[in-house]
Fold:
Amino acid sequence: MKKFYKEASFKEEAGHYLITLDGRTINTPNNNILICPSEQLAAAICAEWNAQEEKIVPDRMPLTQYSYTALDYVPKHRSAIINTMMNFLDTDLVCYRTDEPADLAELQAQHWDPFIYWFEEVFEYKLATTTGLAALKHDEDAHSRAEQHIQQFENDILTIAQSLTATCGSLVMALRFVNDHANAEEMFNAAFVEELHKGRIYDEDRYGIDPNQEKQRNKFMQDIQAARQFLDALKAV
Structure:
């Protein structure tokens, strides 16, 4: 879409912040007014709109896209979203390990165990891990406690949590991140354990990263960093 405005700004109204283009409020795709709960998030979204050049490129506006989702989609589909997220717990990435090669097993433990320990500390339940092919089935207590925790999320937080759960294949990773106990580097290392292990074998530091892998890793880091910016701005109320 061709850029049709000169300046994005925001205005406060009843304790919230409305995004405006040349003084006019923006509507989401579902015709909700684009509104933010914090001034910092409003300013960051305005920066995305002001950074657009001749054409508006939605892929370069992740904070705006997260806000659209939180306003348009999540309120109508909370139950389905939470159910889908909970389905990841028994198949969670950090629970499925290898026993060989030994160095890969060590790398998995190094990057995945902190997420297991965090879950145990918060929910008082130690998740099982396996090196076998059979699917795990965690106790109902684990599911119930995690679901009760997720039910308390505001729509904005739930937007990030559901996105990261799907991206990482891990509910545990997503929950630790949105609770501010994992940074972007920890998430990256956990999500790309096997790829990083292969990189060591093929000495990618010397020969370079496969272009497709590099693109995938860069996209992941961009998404994680945008998610962190969104969460930090939300909490700066």
